[in-house]
Write a structure and sequence with these properties.
Helix content is about 30%, strand content about 20%. By secondary structure, it is an alpha+beta fold.
Length: about 550
């Protein structure tokens, strides 16, 4: 549904939304299966179901079903009404959201503007220690950065409740895409009285009060999370699924076996070596559209051999990205010549020397750089490469380590850790090189490039460069697309020269989906898939 836009000489933008539902849309004549339940695969056990405590996709996939923000995403990734039924802006700097009066928490109480004020203040409160506190500052919310650093009071955050159903947001700079940012899980509301009552255990089944389309009925750690419809949800009448089960399986082969056995309906991925086999045997169930995400290696810029920029440059240059994308993976992935993926809206990257220079020449340059850093046959570079448990991560690590060994004589120790241990190592800086990935929180270049600014809590490499920070700040202050694009290209060139990270490939949204499961928004580049959009058609296929 497209917005109606009215403008005036004072450059006030008002957006009115017609009624729109993001629940399952049933085509005429469709016959539903009597059993409306779906099992969805997660790559790891969620660390927390608290929106302020989420650290990655395993948490966010579930949280999107349990909570709802001001704004949702439609099947193509465009902003659509959530708790807010409409919004308008004055020069893109002051945004006013009008909340729907029928928005309810799962305990039946109304969702109010004050709930968002409380939740956003909690997000940036240093005592919360949220991994996503940076997002409020990235979104430009007034004083968010200073508050997160402990330099200002929570009450100074640029968000206020004008009344129960009117929320005003003040930004430090114009942000035309702020409604898209408001769809991020970090800005989901939580119920203050619920947290006060149950404390640290408030996310347990039977205690979690959410405002999403589903409620948490059961959780068995490392086995399953079971969700059922939230009867208080404002659009519950259009929710078709009656049960959603998320199962954490970090081995893609194991998840695929369970899928083929009928135990899982939607996988988060599948082993790359099975791609052609699966495509031949179950072609309608294999999906690999582009995704707004980058797979990369981050270097420790603060200590160890990778603190030397020459070492980082050499390691980056000697990765043959075409081989990784086409041979090691071979399921439609594209080499990542920039940190920002190609499908990013409004970004036109300059061609990178990594793409235009023959790999043999890049390898020769890398060898020279490594020699200048003091490494060679008599003193080979030794380093560790850390990755979390996954067959694909292991395959890529082995391939890259082989390239470094062959091209530069580097001795690489591979370190494999389970997700939570990996996070501890990542957060403490216990690595030389670490496998990482980033899937955009919204479809704009700053979603990626801001990750490497000095103040970003997700800056795994602990990279600091004043010129880089300045380029991102300039991009954020520009209202014209062309000017922002120039600033983003400056930032990408700095990343190329300083090499805090080595982008390797651009993600595809590779997954398996049973043919009777319909409504999955496979063309959404951010892969935002609310379970309320799904339904199961009548079929004779294998059932659990």
């Amino acid at each position: 549904m497209k917005p109606y836009i009215l403008s005036s000489c004072v450059i006030t933008l008002i957006i009115f939304w017609q009624p729109l539902s993001l629940a399952a849309e049933l085509p005429a004549g469709v016959v539903l299966d009597a059993r409306q339940d779906v099992v969805r695969h997660l790559k790891d056990e969620p660390v927390s179901l608290d929106p302020a405590k989420a650290v990655g996709l395993p948490e966010i996939q579930v949280i999107r079903d349990l909570f709802e923000g001001l704004v949702n995403e439609d099947a193509h990734g465009k902003p659509a009404p959530g708790v807010a039924e409409s919004w308008h802006s004055n020069n893109f700097r002051i945004w006013t959201f009008k909340l729907r009066k029928d928005a309810r928490w799962s305990d039946g109480s109304p969702v109010t503007a004050q709930d968002f004020v409380y939740s956003w203040r909690r997000l940036v409160n240093p005592q919360t220690a949220s991994p996503f506190a940076w997002f409020a500052a990235l979104a430009g919310i007034k004083n968010a950065f200073a508050i997160a650093k402990g330099n200002m009071a929570l009450e100074s955050l640029g968000v206020s409740a004008l009344d129960n159903t009117t929320l005003r947001v003040q930004l430090e700079r114009p942000v035309p895409w702020f409604p898209s940012l408001a769809a991020n899980a970090a800005l989901f509301p939580v119920r203050e009285s619920n947290l006060a009552r149950f404390g640290q255990s408030w996310t347990a089944p039977g205690q979690l009060v959410g405002n999403g389309a589903f409620v948490l009925r059961e959780r068995v750690v490392n086995e399953k999370l079971v969700l059922t419809p939230n009867r208080q949800y404002w659009d519950n009448a259009k929710t078709v699924l009656q049960r959603v089960t998320f199962v954490p399986v970090n081995q893609e082969s194991a998840a695929t076996k369970r899928y083929l056995a009928g135990d899982i309906d939607i996988t988060e991925s599948f082993p790359k070596n099975l791609y052609h086999k699966l495509l031949k045997e179950i072609p309608r169930q294999v999906h690999t559209p582009p995704q707004l995400g980058t797979y990369y290696y981050a270097f420790n810029t603060q200590k160890g051999p990778t603190a030397d920029v020459r070492v980082r440059q050499a390691l980056t240059m000697s990765i043959d990205r075409r081989i990784v994308a086409q041979k090691v993976l071979g399921t439609g992935e594209k080499p990542a010549w920039h940190f920002t993926p190609d499908v990013t809206a409004g970004f036109s990257p300059e061609r990178s020397p990594l793409e235009t220079t023959p790999q043999a020449e890049l390898n020769a340059q890398a060898k020279t750089l490594l020699q200048a850093a003091g490494y060679g046959p008599q003193r080979p570079l030794e380093l560790s490469l850390l990755y979390n448990t996954s067959e694909n991560h292991q395959k890529i690590a082995i391939a890259v380590a082989s390239m470094w060994k062959k091209n530069l004589g580097v001795r690489v120790k591979l370190r494999n850790q389970e997700w939570k241990t990996y996070l501890d190592s990542r957060n403490s800086g216990d690595f030389d090189v670490i496998r990482a990935s980033w899937v955009g929180d919204y479809n704009e270049a700053s979603s990626f490039l801001s990750l490497l600014t000095s103040s970003h809590s997700g800056n795994i490499a602990r990279f600091h460069d004043d010129a880089y920070d300045a380029a991102l700040a300039k991009a954020g202050s520009e209202s014209l697309d062309a000017a922002r694009n120039r600033a983003y290209n400056i930032a990408e060139n700095i990343l190329l020269s300083r090499a805090p990270v080595a982008p390797i490939y651009q993600y595809t949204n590779a997954r398996l989906i049973k043919p009777w499961v319909r409504g999955y928004p496979i063309d959404n580049p951010e892969d935002v898939a609310y379970s309320r959009m799904l339904y199961v058609i009548k079929h004779d296929g294998g059932r659990r």
